[in-house]
Amino acid sequence: MKKTIATRAVVAAFIALAAVIGSAPARAADAWPSRPITVIVPFAGGSASDVVTRIMLAKMSQNMGQTIIVENRPGAGGNIGTAYGAKAAPDGYTWVASGSGPMAANVTLYRDLGYDPVKDFEEVSPFAYFTIVVVASTKLPVKTLPELIAYAKAHPGQLNFGSVGIGSSQHLGGVYFEQVTGTKLVHVPYKNIGQYGPDMIAGVVPLGFQWLPNVLAPLKANGARALAVAGKTRLPALPDTPTTVEAGLPDYQASGWFAMQVPHGTPKEIVDRINHEMAKAIADPDVKKKFELQGAVANVLPPDQAKKFLTDEIAKWHDIIVKAGIPKL
């Protein structure tokens, strides 16, 4: 009898231990996040990417009741900060808010990124899409998109357009424009995009395929005109500017985007939670309004769709870059 009781006690102890072990991961996931989160932004503070990321993260921090710290690590077209984030511990406490350059276009542009966008990350979701705005200095004798195309064809290799750097969506937006319209432009990359506005107003670099924040100053100063928005719908911040479809160039659709990813191996339940919190944050009317003022469209995809979105974008920009004959960096 005593032996039976002892055996039952041992079995009960093992069952209790198994229950504790089995419930530990669930409790750990439930407890996340229990300390501050760091988000790597591989671009300079004050840039469009930095601004919209901080807008969303501020709301996420409020909703989650946890501090979220932004760490800017710019350089090499976003590659430096993205590579740094890829090597972080996959525990849910380091995220990377990277973009279409380092996560898609740079796969083709660079010989060695130091990371693999598909293999080294768990894709959470894109969250901000910047439709390219075709902008021309008022020094140029053009007021519409068809007039710009005609002028560019009449002056091959004489029109300069600016961007934040080689491989940026603004650079490739210009390259794609050349391919669609059969024109020949000259790319001028800027290390400091702040100088681009004055140069556009002066007519030194009179053309741009830009995100709205980068050209708001020359537009407000009446030193530049927005000729078209390279998307299917008009931007709320530019209600009077036609889309490229409306302007007669339906094949020209271009945009840059920012997405959240975490190091490969981050638990799925944490990836799903981050995705949920992102969607909740950008659904807030105030966040949406702030995105719109930056010329950005807010949208979050489920993680499985986000993965497909990334691979599709890598393929798309690969074809454009190869066709343009842009040498690897």
Can you walk me through this structure?
With 329 residues, the chain is α/β, with parallel strands linked by helices. The chain has two domains: 163 residues, D-Maltodextrin-Binding Protein, domain 2 (3-Layer(aba) Sandwich); 97 residues, Periplasmic binding protein-like II (D-Maltodextrin-Binding Protein, domain 2). Helix content is 46%, strand content 19%. The protein is built from eleven helices and eleven strands. A six-stranded mixed β-sheet has the order 2-1-3-10-4-11, sandwiched between helices. A five-stranded mixed β-sheet has the order 7-6-8-5-9. Strand 6, helix 6 and strand 7 form a beta-alpha-beta unit. Helix 6 packs across helix 11. The N terminus is likely disordered.
Task: Look at the helices and sheets and give the structural class.
Answer: alpha/beta
CATH structural architecture of the largest domain: 3-Layer(aba) Sandwich
Let me know the CATH homologous superfamily of the largest domain. Bordetella uptake gene, domain 1
Helix content: 40-55%
Count of structural domains? 2
* Topology-level CATH name of the largest domain: D-Maltodextrin-Binding Protein, domain 2
Strand arrangement across the biggest beta sheet? 2-1-3-10-4-11
CATH class value of the largest domain: Alpha Beta
As a percent range, the share of strand residues is 15-25%
Write a concise keyword list for the protein shown above:
D-Maltodextrin-Binding Protein, domain 2; 11 helices; 329 residues; alpha/beta; 46% helix; 2 domains; five-stranded mixed β-sheet; six-stranded mixed β-sheet; 19% strand
